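A quick aside before the break. I want you to see a complete sequence-to-structure record at least once, exactly as it would be stored in a machine-readable document. Don't worry about memorizing anything.
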Amino acid sequence: MNLLIGGKREARRTYGLDELALAPGLSNIDPDDIAVGLEIGSLKLDIPILASAMDGAVDVRLAICMSELGGVAVLNGEGLQTRYENPDELIAQIIKEPVETIVPLIQQLYRAPVCEELVAQRVREIKQDGGRAVLSFTPLGTRFAEAAMDAGVDAIVIQSTVTTLTYRSSKGPSTDLAKFCATSKVPVIIGNSVTYDGTFELMQAGAAAILVGVGPGAACTTRRVLGLGVPQATAIADAAAARDDYQNSSGRYVPIIADGGLRTGGDVCKAIACGADAVMMGQPIASSFEAPGHGYHWGMATSSIGLPRGTRIKVGQAASLEQILLGPATKDDGTMNFVGALKLGMGTCGAATIKEMQQVELLVAPTLQSEGKRHQSDQRIGMGT
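That is the input. The structure line, written in tokens, reads:
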């Protein structure tokens, strides 16, 4: 529904995950009987969670650990890990830098060139210890993807603030996404998208999965810098509609991955209910003991030379990656045991599979977070934090 905002200009009403609630189903299902696995081409995951390609969240060690727990971590193929042989000391600089000068420091550190040999080396390091290797590149950085493929990468992510099939510039064409997907030796995940038409076109180009979300991430400032973004609930639902229509017309199913703004188990449950097949997380992963940022997290576009669209934030070190993903939770605020929360939420809604969860009843409930929670809010505990 469009609303008149003045003159002849109308605006569409959209929804964030915080505005929604899930209605319980008519039957409960044992969480142990619920299936949450995910397939992206030849990439098979036991849990529908990907770690975001941010240098404070993912390095080789975390990628291996994430694989052991059933998910996959995406390494930034144009980040510190592929610009420097020993990036830990650079990360330590970023952590210690005063807030007033952190953006110029990050811009400086990311000016070093990406090294193709380091791209291949990181893939080999992950693979040699049994991990799944997935690397992310910008559309212009896909020239480094061949080195990753030759080293045995399991999937490639092509990612930018908004990735579209069509790119117009007087300087010449950008990456031919359809050709890249057609010739790739591994599944190609493309993002980010937040519209029906944009998602449909990326699927037509051959994407194996689509990342959905512009600006909701904890370290992202795109929405302030550009005024750009679609609230995550609406973005996921629009992309899921494109997925379903594309499947009906082509016979091919392309998973939707909700990327950004997912802070709690409830957020994950609602993202799936809006139509997502999986989620990608940055901030929760960055808060694990294993994360390279030691409790700090910064956006992928913070390093932009002309217009940074991210910042460094302190997220703290909450627990091990295993506790954050699989429990047991030692906090009551929904920030641990994401898989357990998803399974229990699905069981309470009467959904035994991800596809069934995508059909549960959604409610518009803007007071869901605050109703009856005054004491928690006053004491800054539980849902009041």
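Two observations worth writing down. The chain has a mean pLDDT of 94. The radius of gyration is 20 Å. We'll return to this after the break.
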